[in-house]
Design a protein that fits this description.
Helix content is 28%, strand content 22%. By secondary structure, the protein is an alpha+beta fold.
């Protein structure tokens, strides 16, 4: 990525929230329920955020998989309560990349100051009928190290674990996850280029309708970086890499290969699309502070909660298209582009280095 690690941290938080909103606004978009969001100290990673989410991804499922999805009559969801607050700078979910096998726990990250008293999750049970095409995610975020565990209730023997390390280099590290030799032999490395124009797999849909982002054409007015032309990974400054290790298991005879292939393609597309959007939205989030983006996430979580309730018929008298837009609030106008967004000489030099 043509960013510093700290820039990526803020950009990823903004991108995740903004994409979640755009997806929820679509008539057939994937809804997201935030079930739990609490501060914890993990034995293997130190202090961070533990979160549980439910992604309703019916339209992402291929017809052959949707056809065998069972119906369920209830789920755990939030109902009209404010989203639990969390300390600024800690993401609610992690992005993913690279395929592997079973791996040891990530190394602990640096401890931060002890948090205030934990904010308990707000949960209620609202009965209704829905498709079984949902994805459950549990995440531990101690940036720059994150760990995510994904399951599909549709298939109880399916699981996927995504371990991420964000590092300021060009992706040269061979074993940043410190896998043992026997596991390293099974690992398959996949490089995800956010500027590549690859043919979309499965149904050919992007993350949301109207997604016209193109990293090979985008130029950031605020930073002077871009566009990302051929070989940009070797030239751009600053630069960082998201090392993602994905471990999947699906123990169903006859369907194993097909489902694992679907999930692998889905994750690859997610990594590429999400990080491309992160870059192409740079001028929307560059200059935000950790507190700014945390406040923005809070507003988005409350809005997507409301949208889900409107779609499900639990809130009447409001239409999704009439809801006012939500924009992040910059606490530092100068860093936010208050000078008109003119790039510095250093940033202009970086753009030349990238061939932009």
């Amino acid at each position: 990525m043509p960013l510093t690690v700290e820039e990526y941290r803020i950009g990823q938080l903004y991108m995740t929230a903004n994409t979640q909103m755009l997806e929820a606004m679509q008539e057939d978009g994937a809804g997201v329920d935030l079930v739990e969001n609490t501060t914890k100290v993990f034995d293997d990673m130190g202090q961070g955020i533990y979160a549980r989410k439910i992604f309703h991804i019916d339209r992402r499922f291929p017809p052959w998989l949707r056809a065998i999805a069972p119906k369920v009559t209830s789920r755990t969801r939030r109902a009209g309560k404010p989203t639990p607050a969390r300390p600024p700078g800690q993401g609610l979910a992690s992005m993913r990349c690279l395929k592997g096998a079973e791996l040891p726990s990530p190394k602990p990250c640096a401890q931060q100051s002890p948090p205030a008293a934990e904010t308990p999750p707000v949960r209620t049970h609202t009965p209704f009928v829905q498709s079984g095409c949902s994805l459950y995610e549990e995440s531990k975020n101690c940036f720059p190290v994150t760990s995510t565990y994904v399951t599909l209730p549709l298939f109880s023997k399916f699981s996927m674990r995504i371990d991420s390390v964000h590092y300021a280099d060009r992706g040269e590290q061979e074993n940043i996850h410190k896998l043992p030799p026997d596991v390293l032999k099974k690992r398959k490395v996949v490089f995800v280029d956010i500027a590549a124009q690859e043919e979309k797999k499965e149904d050919g849909k992007k993350m949301y309708e109207g997604d016209e982002t193109d990293a090979a054409k985008f130029f950031s007015k605020k930073t002077g970086r871009g566009p990302l032309l051929g070989g940009w990974q070797k030239r751009c400054k600053p630069v960082m890499c998201c090392y993602k290790l994905v471990t999947s298991e699906f123990d169903y005879w006859g369907l194993q290969h097909k489902v694992e292939e679907f999930m692998t393609n889905y994750e690859h597309g997610l990594f590429q699309n999400a990080n491309r959007q992160l870059w192409c939205w740079t001028d929307e989030w560059y200059g935000l502070t950790i507190q700014d983006v945390s406040d923005y996430e809070q507003e988005i979580a409350e809005r997507t909660n409301l949208i889900s309730q409107i779609k499900e018929g639990h809130v009447t008298g409001q239409r999704i298209k009439d809801l006012p837009p939500i924009k992040p609030k910059f606490s530092n106008a100068k860093k936010a582009g208050g000078d008109g967004g003119k790039p510095s000489e250093e940033a202009t030099s970086e753009a030349k280095d990238q061939g932009g």
